[in-house]
Structure formats: structure tokens, C-alpha cells
Amino acid sequence: MTEKEFYKKYKAIHKDIRTKGKSKDSILANGFKEGVNVNALPIYKGFEKATDIIATRYKPRKGDFVWILPKQGFTEGRNGYKTKQGYKPNPNDGFFIISDDWSLYENYCANLATPNDDLGDIDTEVEKALQEKQKNREFKDAGKRVHGSRKEQAMYNKLISSSDLNSIEQDEATAIELIKKDKVFPKVDPQAEKENGTDSGCAFLKVKVRQAFPAKPHANTKEAREQYVKMAEAFTKVLTDAISITDLQQLDTIANNGEIVGKHDFGMIFGKALRNIVFTIKGYRTTSAVKETYMKAHQYSGITKEQVAPHAKRLKEYTDKRIKRQQDCIDSAKQILSPADMKRHKQNDLTFQGGMLSSVRTVEDYVRYVTQVCTRFINDAKREYNEQKERFPYKEFKPDWSWAETKKTSNSKSSSKPKIEAVPLSYIKRTGGLLIEEADENTVIKKLHFKSLTLGNYVKDDEAREHIRHFVAAIVDLCEVLDINLSINEALAIAFGAFGRGGKAMATYYPTRQLINLTKRNGDGSVAHEWGHFFDHYLNGLELSTKPLRSESYLNTIIESLGYKKKYFIGGNSSPTKDWFKDILKTSINKVVPTFQERQSVVHTSIVSLILMLRFGYYALDDKAVSYNDFDETKKRRTDSYLYHYSKLQGAYWKDIAEMFARSFECYVYDKLKEKNRVN
């Protein structure tokens, strides 16, 4: 903003004399207290000060910590201008004066350009900590830091608040990675709730609310992340303060007051599960499952005999009324003497319809049938009463915390990505190509043009040396045999044992960060495969969409364009001929790939071949595929849907088109190496 815009927006200034800026986090989280003195902004650069604020001689000095406030941040009082209770300033509106000679506007711009360490800028603090941790290592991270590594995540040891968003949003991939439930919405500790005097049912609902809160924002946009964090903050405050179920009704106000999301958008943005439980706590009708949860909460809270009495009384009165109605029907039926009386009874006194009434002809049969049916209704009412009176809220219950007892959980299901044993680092064989005797992080950044290199905390210097040397050799060979300019790597980052989360994968490509992570023990030997993923992403313009890779987006577009015919691609019971499927596939492709030249490109024809392979498998018949149930276990599998069958048999990894693209690319690189009598 310009100076004129600055002084038009900001009208007052508060000098934080007592805390010297130490109260920043509290003010950002909870807002200002009521009645803190506010002074008019001094005149600078010839601009007129605000006419609605009393002028003062106040002028900040070097080292002062100040807050600048817009008009909505303060109120006019009898004794001058004061802060407004609960007003939360922008994190950038609090800063240190760095020179006696600078105006507030210049100080403001300086603080924006170079975040002040004393302000607790979360990204700056993490950067300093990472550098400190590596200062005694021979091999260090190089290039621009790529966010999201395990060691970086460990540095974000506090919950993220809305005051941290400006810093985090400087890197979209970091924002996507960090803005998740575990980072913004603390878990509810039942034992702590019990010790704090919270009602058991209230604590139970707190857990359910937190469980229902979505795991991440509904969209990968800055606005969605801001809404997500602010809603989490607001909900957390209510949950922290609540000690009874009634206190939780404030959640509905937050959800629907229109301050964070539109008044009618809460359910759409945060999901039906959270909406239903919030609405049920408020007293609205939702689903039976949520209502049952709500009733359980009240039961866990406990109910005394005095509280039970009116409920039990109403249940008894309701049951007696049901029984009396059926007994009156029986008594009046026994007074029937003629067919006319029977007709009159049907019209005035009968309590049910249907059944065998149409087949009853005589008075005796009618009285017998009515007595039988009404007696069954009476017995049902008595049985239901006996069951209900033992349930909440018709019976006394003591407060119950048994729901909070820790339960043993079964082992989680393993990833669908299979474990593939790699060649140990010391046995990697390379024949031919440029001799690579030594390499370090500068080789990766300056000669291979990678944007960054990140080393995991547990990768020792001697291991880093070997990892980097083998990696440099692999990239040099790959670019040489494919005749690719090394400058393509300017968009790619490499990490060794820094981004993995354990499990079976030897290496992983992260589209949101354009980064390849090679695991500490098994990553080497996977470079061509993961670089193939990067190339797939590069072909798609390095998009950060839900289908970031070219192969994925291409396949998704084609399948969606098939319309109702896509059942012939993904359905397990469909058996089209291969020629027929190729025809509808061709028609679909012509819709989504308008130019002839693009349809004839190598990438296009390759992906089409992969689609056919996914559909018909490697051993499919040329004419018509057979049903799953019609094959011999001892012979090769002949299937009508490779995609369907192998997704069931081996998991999603093997049939994923992005993986097929990468494996195809990997095989192509090996073939090109073999042509030149080279090995890597």
C-alpha cells in the first residue's frame, strides 16, 4: 500500500510499554482487553491525521513495540480512546520501531520485508533452528528450502493459529502440508477434562465434535485454509471453556453467524458429520445415529432420582394410555350382539385396520379376532415399557467415564504399495558414462541445476557422501542417454531420508513440492522411476490439482468423457469386445483431444496404450474377454477387466496409470542404457 493508503487505513497507535511485545501471541489469539489507551497517529510526510481522534504529541522511539489499529480496533470513551475488547489485530500490525528517524509507514514496510525475530515469525524460527542443527555437519542442505521434511515438521511443535497463516502461506505446498486437523485442533484429553471438573457427557461430545471435524480444508485454496484454521480456533475455545453439554450449544452460533463462513455454508464446507452433531447439540432434528450419540452423552453425564421422576411418570402415563385404548376396544367388542353392532364398532371403536378383518363374517369370529389382536398390542406396550424404564432417562444413572478408557487398537492395514527390495548402496553397479569420483551438495545445485537438496537428520555424513555421488551419476546418465538438458531439473528438488514416513516405499515423488525423496537404506536405484513421475508432472505443467500428473489427468478426462459407457472400463461384470471398446475410446479421445497432431503424439499414443492395457490386461483374448468365474486356477488368468481384477488382487499400486507410466519410463531408460552397453 502507499503511504496515503496506510494513513487512511490506520488511525491509532498503541505502545506496548509493559510487556515489550511479549504479549503478542496472547493478543493475536484472544484480542485486546477493554480500555487500553490508544493514541492518535502522529503527522508524517504531510498527510493529515484522522480528524476523529484527539491529536497527541506521542512519537514512538527506536526499540518500542507498537500496535497500529484501524478505526474498528478502538472505541471512543469518556477519558479518550481505548482498545475494543476482543479485537484481534493482523500479525503484521505489531512491530518494533527500528529507527528514531523512520516514519511508522517505513517501519511497517521494513517489518513486512524482513520479519522481526522478536515477533516470533514461525517460518523464520524454523529456518534458524534447522541451520543451527546442521552447523557441525560436513554435508548440509543446499538451495532454497523445500518445506515439509520430517525434521522441519518436528520444528512446528506448536499448534498453528490464524496469526501464523501469513507466514505459512508464503509457500503453498507448506500450507497444504501443515494445515491439517492435528496441527490446528488439539485432541481432547478425557482424563484432563475429568480433572478439570467437566461433565462426562460434555467431554464425550467434545471428543465426537473433534472427530467429526474434517481432517483438512475442503479445498486447496488460501481462503479455505483460513476458514479451516479460524473455525478450528473458535471451536477449540468453546470446547476448552465448556463444562456442561449446554455450554456446547455455542458451537451452533459460531457455525452459523456468518463471521467465518456464510450463514448457510457450514455444512457444505465442514461436512454433514460435523453439521449434524452441532445441530443436534443445539436441539435441531438430524439423523438417528447422531441423536443416539447425543442421548449417550446425557446418560454418561448421569441422572438423579429427582431428575428421573418426571420422565418416568410421562412414560408410565403414555403406556397406560396405550393399554387402556386397546382394553376399551376389547370391552366394547364383547358387547356386540348383532351385525349392526359389529359395523358400528368397526367405525367408532376399532383401534386397527387391515389384517384378516375382511375375511371375518360372523359376530363370534369378529369378537375373537379383535380380542386376539388388541391383547397382542397390550402385551407389546407392556414389553416396551419394561425395556424403556431401564434406559436413560427413565432410570437413575451415575456419571460414567467408562467410554474414556483406553482401548487396544488392532494393527493398521499396510499400504497398498508393495515392498520391493532394492540393491544395497554398497553393491550398486555402474558401467560406462562420465566418471564421478566425488560430489557434494554444490554439485547437485550448481552443476545439475536442482533447486534444493535436503538431508534427513539420521543420514550421516559418510552416507550422505555416497548417496549424493550415486545420485549425481544416475542423473548424469539419465540426461545423457535421453539427450535431455540438465536445466529441466531447475524445477525439481531432491531429498535423502528427509520426507518419508516409514513403510514400504523405497522412494517417493511429491507433486506438491516437485521433490524426489530417496529413503536412507533403499532409495538408490529408484532414480529413473521417480524422475519419470517428475517428467509426468512436468508434462502437465507442474499443476497442483487433484490429478497433478499428465497420465492421471489424461486418464481421468477420458474416463469422464465416456459418460455412462465408463462402466465398460471399470465394471467387473462387463465383457465388451476389444475392437468395440477401442472405437468408443477413440470417439471419447476425439472429444477431449481436439487436434490431430496431439492425438498422433508419442505421449498421447503411449497413454492410450496404457489405458487399453489397464482395461484388457496383458493376457486378454483378442476377441472377447471371459468372466472371472470361468477360468482354470492352474492357467494364466484371462480377465475382462485388468483394472478391476488387479485392484482387488494386488491393491491399487500395480494398476495405477501413473505407476505404469513411471515403470514404462524406467524400462525405457534401461533399454537406452543397454543399447550403449552401459549399466546403472
UniProtKB/TrEMBL annotation:
Q: Which InterPro entries match?
A: LPD1 (IPR041047)
Full protein name? Large polyvalent protein-associated domain-containing protein
Q: Which residues form the Large polyvalent protein-associated domain?
A: 647-680
Top-level taxon? Bacteria
From which organism does this entry originate?
Carboxylicivirga sediminis
Q: Which Pfam families match?
A: LPD1
